[in-house]
């Protein structure tokens, strides 16, 4: 005899005694769904109506329906959907209608749940969103029903840079959706596209060899991406090449980004796809042209995931690669002049900039010439040879610094070709200045190759250039003379030991107006030289010009053999003979270079023991205030200086005190002999 089970509501409580009776009679306690199936239809409908808005109850202990979820292991955030299946098995003897509830969520970010989507394939083959459950499903008795689903995790700016878990919760509900018949929970790893840089460079040379490195973009998920732009952003002065499969290099063209200061955006591939599990690697070499700035530059390799026209792409990759740019690809070689003449013409020289890099390099060439005594503007000059073949002055700024006086200028926007050289033709001079024309020394020439901004030194050189003044030497000069006696012969040498040529040199002898002077010509004959009275009142002096030729070539010595006599009536006593090279005669500010002069004692009879006649014997010569003795004649060379004197056409300035001492001695001698005083006027050019 069979036992008919009584109807029970969900609130029925089974006592221990009742459960024992049911077990003893062999009655199987079925699930609530089974009761609903066996019960009259009206009762089932009522139950469904009563529980429509409530959560489904927990499943009973003996389901006829079971659930198997073949969840995907991974899904790509921002990638395409990943398909999977959920299979419901009906082990019962009657067909069963059910609903399949599927939910997906992550605890990584509440906002991220807004972009997680589950879809099912409908009977018409179309994919439709699962809002809560997949409705209208039936599984035959003893059969299975497989539902095709797919999971998508969309882009969200707060959910792109780390791996997280999407929890996939599935449940089989009865036809009313009120009771859970079977359920499953699976974890799906939500992966993101990654970008890595292999052998990332830390330094690069402006205009130098490019640096090589790898950019690798990976899709570790089961999603297919169709929206990934593989790009690299770099400085506007960059160049980028990509190695092809055959090993050759393809030059990429960057697109300027105005909002990023003109940075260039390079596309590493036209294809925006990344297949499931795909690894995309490109071997690159990055260079920087000569107009790049020294310092740190930032390179951004990115995978840009497109979110559509209403949103900016989401970037995946390192924040940046910092590269320190240096300028050592450029070198500087200076072929400086060995010397320049003080007051002479400019001397040419070259400065060559070399470029070991693979791109043309613009640069500025800074020039700094200095000397400790060039204490006013204009004492040093530089010129450059322009493209039109004309020499043009380099604008120099005069500055006093602790180590001396500097004359600083630059040539801007010069370019040296890749793997080539640029030679700049220059010339250096110490223009005539009567305050220091007789000084020798050194001009320090400091040159530097700067970047286009003028802020960074790419290469530099410092050279010493000898500054040489003209030298005047007298050999065999007389020490005594007799009025109306035999003239004394001696040599005057005008020495230019510098690389400068002179075109403004007047070789002169200045002495008492009661004198005569002859110059020996090439054929040995003698030419009378007419003395020109000086314009200084009371000076009682004349100037003899030894030649009309004012040129004195570089590294040249011109020697004049002369004979000097004194006429009857010449005053007895000591007089002085000055042998000078006058620079810039007949200009506003001429300068004389040479010894201070040598004394000649004019006597009525030859002085015993002092030589043969007027020219021979031991002599005493004044050399810039110093006394020396030599046999067989004197070399009145002296220290180069400018002296107080007056020549035809203008006054001569002086430097130092030696000239005043000599002038004072001469004046004292003349006054003692009753002759009018000899005055030396001074006219100094302001420093």
UniProtKB/TrEMBL annotation:
Record has Secreted as a keyword: yes
- The question of whether Transmembrane is a record keyword is answered with yes
What ranges does the record list as Low complexity composition bias?
617-629, 636-651
Q: Which domain of life is it from?
A: Bacteria
Span-the-membrane segments of this chain are 660-681
The annotated region (Disordered) lies at: 609-651
Positions of the Gram-positive cocci surface proteins LPxTG domain: 652-687
Q: Which InterPro entries match?
A: LPXTG_anchor (IPR019931)
Alphabetical keyword list: Cell wall, Membrane, Peptidoglycan-anchor, Secreted, Signal, Transmembrane, Transmembrane helix
Where is the secretion signal located?
1-36
Q: Which NCBIfam families match?
A: LPXTG_anchor (TIGR01167)
Q: What is this protein called?
A: Gram-positive cocci surface proteins LPxTG domain-containing protein
Q: What organism is listed for this UniProt entry?
A: Kitasatospora aureofaciens (Streptomyces aureofaciens)
């Amino acid at each position: 005899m069979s036992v008919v089970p009584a109807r029970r509501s969900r609130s029925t409580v089974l006592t221990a005694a009742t459960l024992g009776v049911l077990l003893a009679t062999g009655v199987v306690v079925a699930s609530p769904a089974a009761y609903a199936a066996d019960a009259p239809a009206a009762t089932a409908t009522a139950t469904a109506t009563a529980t429509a808005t409530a959560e489904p109850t927990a499943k009973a202990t003996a389901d006829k329906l079971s659930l198997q979820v073949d969840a995907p292991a991974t899904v790509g955030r921002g990638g395409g959907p990943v398909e999977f299946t959920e299979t419901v098995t009906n082990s019962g003897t009657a067909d069963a209608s059910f609903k399949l509830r599927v939910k997906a969520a992550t605890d990584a970010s509440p906002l991220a749940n807004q972009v997680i989507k589950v879809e099912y394939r409908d009977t018409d083959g179309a994919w439709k969103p699962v809002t809560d459950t997949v409705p209208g499903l039936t599984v035959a008795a003893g059969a299975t029903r497989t539902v095709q689903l797919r999971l998508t995790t969309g882009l969200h700016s707060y959910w792109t840079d780390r791996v997280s878990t999407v929890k996939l919760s599935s449940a089989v509900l009865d036809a009313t959706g009120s009771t859970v018949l079977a359920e499953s929970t699976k974890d799906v790893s939500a992966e993101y596209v990654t970008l890595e840089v292999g052998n990332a460079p830390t330094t690069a040379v402006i205009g130098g060899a490019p640096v090589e490195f790898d950019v690798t973009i990976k899709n570790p998920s089961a999603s297919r991406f169709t929206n990934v732009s593989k790009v690299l952003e770099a400085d506007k002065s960059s160049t980028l090449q990509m190695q092809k499969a055959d090993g050759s290099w393809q030059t990429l063209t960057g697109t300027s980004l105005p909002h990023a200061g003109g940075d260039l955006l390079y596309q590493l591939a036209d294809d925006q796809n990344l297949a499931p599990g795909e690894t995309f690697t490109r071997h690159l070499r990055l260079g920087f042209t000569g107009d790049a700035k020294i310092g740190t530059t930032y390179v951004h390799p990115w995978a840009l995931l497109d979110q559509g026209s209403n949103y900016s792409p989401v970037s995946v990759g390192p924040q940046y690669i910092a590269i320190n740019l240096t300028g050592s690809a450029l070198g500087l070689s200076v072929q400086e002049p060995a010397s320049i003449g003080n007051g002479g013409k400019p001397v040419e020289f070259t400065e060559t900039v070399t470029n070991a890099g693979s791109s043309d390099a613009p640069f500025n060439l800074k020039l700094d010439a200095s000397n400790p005594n060039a204490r006013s503007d204009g004492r040093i000059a530089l010129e450059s040879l322009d493209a039109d073949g004309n020499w043009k002055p380099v604008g120099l700024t005069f500055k006093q610094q602790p180590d001396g006086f500097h004359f600083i200028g630059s040539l801007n926007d010069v370019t040296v070709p890749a793997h080539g050289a640029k030679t700049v033709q220059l010339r250096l001079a110490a223009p005539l200045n009567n305050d220091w024309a007789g000084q020798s020394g050194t001009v320090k020439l400091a040159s530097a190759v700067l970047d286009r901004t003028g802020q960074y030194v790419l290469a530099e050189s410092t050279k010493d250039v000898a500054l040489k003044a003209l030298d005047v030497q007298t050999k065999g000069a007389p020490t005594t003379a007799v009025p109306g006696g035999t003239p004394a012969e001696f040599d005057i040498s005008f020495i230019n030991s510098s690389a400068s040529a002179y075109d403004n040199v007047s070789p002169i002898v200045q002495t008492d107006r009661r004198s005569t002077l002859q110059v020996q010509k090439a054929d040995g004959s003698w030419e009378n030289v007419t003395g020109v009275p000086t314009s200084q009142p009371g000076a009682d002096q004349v100037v003899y010009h030894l030649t009309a030729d004012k040129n004195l070539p570089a590294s040249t010595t011109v020697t004049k053999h002369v004979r000097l006599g004194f006429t009857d009536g010449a005053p007895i006593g000591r007089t002085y003979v000055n042998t000078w090279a006058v620079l810039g005669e007949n200009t506003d500010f001429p300068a004389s270079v040479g010894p201070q002069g040598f004394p000649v004692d004019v006597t009525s009879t030859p002085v015993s023991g002092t030589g043969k006649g007027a020219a021979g014997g031991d002599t005493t010569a004044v050399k810039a205030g110093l006394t020396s003795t030599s046999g067989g004649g004197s070399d009145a060379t002296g220290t180069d200086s400018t002296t107080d004197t007056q020549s035809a056409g203008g006054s001569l300035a002086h430097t130092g005190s030696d000239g005043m001492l000599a002038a004072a001695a001469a004046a004292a001698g003349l006054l003692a002999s009753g002759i009018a005083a000899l005055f030396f006027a001074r006219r100094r050019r302001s420093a």
